[in-house]
Specification:
TIM Barrel, globular, 8-stranded parallel β-sheet, alpha/beta
Length: 224
């Protein structure tokens, strides 16, 4: 899959490791059913052990890994090779999330190899300065979110959003920009899109919600 095939405004559903097995598959199927009704690209993110099952049970979401490695085939116990993701129908991967940071060398190598394999890369950045630095590596998407706000329910302020978007644009105008952290409802999604983001997403708030269908419907409805 290529960057040009992503339809903004896009959205990522990433329950992290709060849900596994049947609970995760149920959420993936729910997301897939809603994604069929939207022109926007919807990413569904899951741990490596769950990805094949999700690929086999969905049709409309972009199945996405939480991270990946560019070490190639051969030696490398405990890693998630990009080649394995490609062989099993996974179309995208997050990279450099605060819960799984990479060195610049690792990030650069992984983005390059992912491009060769046609795997979309979503690289995470904490500050405007880091956003600009990562933009030089040309990932397909940069997720700008302050590490200190991840999982808190507090959204990024307008100055942070403006500064990170400007920082990325100054380096590479082709990269798609996500703004995240603290998304809890459709109102938050509309706000970020109005401020210039091309996509956003949700993680723990959805995973822990008692009415996931209602919340997800609200979130994806805001993309329109």
């Amino acid at each position: 899959m290529k960057r040009e095939q992503i339809t903004p405004p896009f959205f990522t559903v990433s329950p992290k490791s709060y849900l596994v097995g049947n609970e995760l598959i149920e959420l993936a199927k729910m997301t897939d059913e809603l994604a069929e009704k939207h022109e926007s690209s919807i990413f569904f993110v899951a741990p490596a052990a769950e990805l094949v099952n999700i690929v086999q049970n969905t049709e409309h979401v972009i199945v996405t890994a939480q991270t990946a490695d560019a070490n190639g085939l051969g030696r490398g116990m405990g890693r998630t090779p990009l080649e394995s993701l490609k062989a099993n129908g996974v179309e995208a991967t997050f990279l450099n999330h605060m819960e799984h940071p990479l060195t610049i060398k690792e990030l650069s190598t992984t983005i390059k190899r992912a491009k060769e394999l046609g795997i979309i890369t979503i690289a995470c950045a904490d500050t405007p300065e880091e956003s600009a630095a990562i933009a030089t590596l040309d990932p397909d998407i940069i997720l700008c979110e302050p590490d200190c706000l991840v999982g808190t329910g507090t959204v990024s302020d307008e100055s942070y959003i403006a500064e990170t978007i400007a920082a990325v644009r100054a380096v590479n105008s082709e990269i798609l920009i996500m703004e995240g952290a603290g998304i809890t409802c459709g109102k938050d999604v509309r706000r970020l899109l109005r401020l210039g983001a091309q996509g956003t997403g949700i993680s723990s708030t959805l995973a822990l919600s008692e009415n996931k269908n209602e919340l997800l419907t609200d979130l994806l409805g805001a993309l329109r």
